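Shipment paperwork, digital attachment
Item: protein structure file
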Amino acid sequence: MNTARKFIAVAAALVTGSGLCFAQSSTTTTTTVESSTAPYSEGTVWQITMIRTKPGMTDDYLKGLAKSLKTSLEEGKKQGFILSYKVLLGEASTPGDYNIMTMVEHKNMAALDGLRAKTDPIAQKVIGGEDQQREAAMKRAELREILGGKLMREITLK
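Attachment content:
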């Protein structure tokens, strides 16, 4: 399962599915990497998930996020592997568009290495064991559809 998606699935029980891990190791200890030719400086890394709730289910879905996602991400912040997070809500611009976006900020790409080992214990505490997590994932599928996810780096233009 894709590490970025696994975190959100585990933390908020948002994402299910399979994929590859996007994390890569880095020996850089700072969040900014300078290049003499790049027109920008590299910053933090954001895990982004785009979600479309089913008609009439947005409030129910957000109530679930308030319980599981917020608790999980706050614990990640306390443990230091999450810098910040955001949940954005808006109207879909087309019938196939998302109406909720979650964004989780990490220090750098290296911060994603071993992420599952950090998030699994939080999921156990917040959601329960494997059976409870699977059941929660099935209930969420009744409320929403994951349209996609991205791993993006924040940059500062020079």
